[in-house]
């Protein structure tokens, strides 16, 4: 079995008398695409926010490459190579596509506090930024403001921006949500392509969508792990079938 | 850079060539106009416009480019005015050092206010800055050196660098113009710097900026301190121009006025605050000669403008030019 790169142990989150996540154990193996699925309100996004430190857990630990990151700051988690996306497409709407990607690239230059330097000092990053934009098929949009992109393209831009950090682990929060059929195909292909050499943990609503994309699927229900394994095992599980009754699984 | 450098993703990455030449010509024309203005208009009026324009530009750096709405900027403006007035009058410092003392005070205040306020967002941020600036107001009212209700009057302008006699209105005007331009250029550069890029990213989507590894509170703090320093510069210069520092400079109404100027002109545009400040100062001095109630008229104009031009005067003009291009 491959090395565990990301692990949650007995992770719980309570909001004023309501337990959103109950003792979740999760092990993400290096180099795999791991999907976290479940019906609405199953606690997927909460687990996601806990792992990326955007929410503090009530109980439990989070380990990244064997290091305890339960109390690390979210910006520092990102610097360690654990980079997340958001459910609502997270772009910087009034920056151009190129600038969106460049913002992600510029931090390692160490000049991000330099308010006296001209913008031209960032132009050295344009080549790398354009490569990333090409990689997600956005070359024609590079100089447009991100707000002008259609929805599917915004998700592509978000992935390009995340890739700019060259993360070891990418966490994608419902990357396929709200997309038309065609966009789903494109984006799924894109995720598979960028997952090469990385680890991906993604949250999804539908079981069928992640069927041929993921190596491992963890199903959550009411904040607890219901089942785990490859698609074939999970989809045959009677409890999973019941949880998904009428939720359009394949 | 073209005149319509708004926040909306125009930082020379788009199609720069056609706009650059007319832009440079426009800037040169504006500069020439500013140099010749005191021969046509009353210099004290122009200096007042420049002081408030710089104040509004400093405020705009925070609200327009970092997305932080401060309701306590009078503390930096007025605090610096008091310190400069005291330094020039009591300590008999030359004007350059008196200004430096004022700006230094505003910077320190900005550091303290900022460190406390950036922990909160939106209305809470505004309320913390308001509460802190009210504390400065009461200090200005109670401290022995501020002269209470009278303020500090008869502040000597002195000789700039021991050479230029600032009692001459024209010399004072050009000194104020030079200081305004330096402040304006600092802001323009900051907006178009690597720091400005991160700041805009934070304004647009803070959680995403965090997820890219930026410790956003530090960037917001730096923006806050820069804004406070420049607001202090405006207050210091104002104290020398009017030879006066009074409670008016530190009231919450002053914090409100700068919000009004910035929104009227167009927040997030470089020239908007200048236009807004000029408009408000011009209206106030024009209306003062009539029997109309000044705050009511300005309030009505403000409501009218906000309803009609949501992006402010400069913001709307820039939008029209962009659509034509």
UniProtKB/TrEMBL annotation, chain A:
It comes from the Bacteria. Keywords: ATP-binding, Nucleotide-binding, Transport. The keyword ATP-binding applies. Coiled coil: none annotated. Residues 6-247 form the ABC transporter domain. SUPFAM superfamilies: P-loop containing nucleoside triphosphate hydrolases (SSF52540). InterPro entries: AAA+_ATPase, ABC_AA/LPS_Transport, ABC_transporter-like_ATP-bd, BCA_ABC_TP_C, P-loop_NTPase. The keyword Membrane does not apply. GO terms for molecular function: ATP binding. Pfam families: ABC_tran, BCA_ABC_TP_C. Gene3D superfamilies: P-loop containing nucleotide triphosphate hydrolases. This is ABC transporter ATP-binding protein.
Automatic annotation (TrEMBL), chain B:
Keywords: Cell membrane, Membrane, Transmembrane, Transmembrane helix. It comes from Azospirillum oleiclasticum. InterPro entries: ABC_transp_permease, LivM-like. It is a multi-pass membrane protein. Pfam families: BPD_transp_2. It is found in: Cell membrane. It comes from the Bacteria. The chain crosses the membrane at residues 20-42, 49-77, 97-116, 123-141, 170-187, 221-246, 258-283, 290-309. This is Branched-chain amino acid ABC transporter permease.
């Amino acid at each position: 079995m491959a090395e565990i790169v990301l692990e949650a142990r007995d992770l719980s989150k309570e909001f004023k008398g309501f337990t959103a996540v109950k003792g979740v154990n999760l092990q993400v193996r290096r180099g795999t695409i791991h999907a976290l699925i479940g019906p609405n309100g199953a606690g997927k996004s909460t687990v996601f926010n806990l792992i990326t430190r955007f929410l503090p857990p009530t109980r439990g630990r989070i380990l990244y490459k064997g290091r305890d990151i339960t109390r690390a700051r979210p910006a520092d988690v990102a610097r360690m190579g654990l980079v997340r996306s958001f459910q609502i497409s997270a772009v910087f709407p009034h920056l151009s596509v190129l600038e969106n990607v460049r913002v992600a690239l510029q931090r390692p230059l160490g000049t991000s506090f330099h308010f006296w330097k001209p913008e031209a000092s960032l132009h050295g990053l344009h080549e790398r930024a354009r490569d990333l934009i090409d990689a997600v098929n956005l070359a024609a949009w590079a100089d447009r403001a991100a707000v002008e992109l259609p929805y599917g393209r915004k998700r592509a831009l978000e992935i390009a921006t995340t890739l700019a950090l060259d993360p070891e682990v990418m966490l994608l929060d419902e990357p396929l949500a709200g997309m038309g059929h065609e966009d789903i195909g494109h984006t799924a292909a894109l995720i598979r392509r960028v997952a090469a050499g990385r680890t991906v943990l993604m949250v999804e609503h539908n079981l069928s969508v992640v069927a041929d994309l993921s190596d491992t699927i963890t199903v959550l229900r009411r904040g607890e792990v219901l089942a785990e394994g490859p698609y074939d095992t999970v989809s045959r599980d009677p409890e999973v079938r019941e949880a998904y009754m009428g939720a359009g699984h394949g | 850079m073209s005149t319509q450098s708004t926040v909306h993703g125009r930082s020379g990455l788009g199609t720069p060539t056609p706009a650059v030449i007319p832009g440079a010509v426009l800037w040169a024309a504006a500069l020439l106009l500013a140099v010749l203005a005191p021969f046509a208009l009353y210099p004290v009026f122009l200096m007042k416009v420049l002081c408030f324009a710089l104040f509004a530009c400093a405020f705009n750096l925070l609200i327009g480019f970092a997305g932080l709405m401060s309701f306590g900027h009078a503390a930096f403006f007025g605090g610096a005015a008091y310190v400069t007035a005291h330094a020039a009058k009591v300590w008999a410092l030359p004007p350059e050092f008196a200004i430096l003392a004022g700006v230094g005070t505003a910077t320190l205040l900005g550091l303290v206010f900022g460190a406390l306020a950036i922990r909160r967002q939106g209305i809470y941020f505004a309320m913390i800055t308001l509460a802190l600036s009210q504390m400065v107001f009461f200090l200005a009212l109670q401290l022995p050196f501020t002269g209470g209700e009278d303020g500090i009057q008869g502040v000597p302008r002195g000789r700039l660098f021991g050479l230029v006699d600032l009692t001459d209105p024209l010399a004072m005007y050009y000194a104020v113009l030079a200081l305004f331009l330096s402040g304006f250029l600092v802001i323009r550069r900051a907006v178009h710097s690597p720091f400005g890029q991160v700041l805009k990213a934070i304004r647009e989507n803070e959680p995403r900026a965090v997820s890219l590894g930026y410790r956003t509170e530090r960037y917001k703090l730096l923006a806050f301190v820069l804004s406070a320093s420049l607001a202090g510069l405006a207050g210091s210069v104002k104290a020398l121009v009017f030879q006066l520092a009074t409670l008016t400079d530190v009231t919450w109404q002053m914090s409100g006025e700068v919000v009004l100027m910035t929104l009227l002109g167009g927040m997030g545009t470089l020239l908007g605050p200048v236009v807004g400040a000029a408009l408000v100062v011009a209206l106030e001095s024009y209306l003062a000669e009539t029997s109309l109630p000044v705050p009511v008229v300005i309030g009505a104009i403000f409501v009218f403008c906000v309803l009609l031009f949501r992006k402010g005067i400069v913001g709307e003009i820039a939008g029209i030019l962009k659509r034509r291009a």
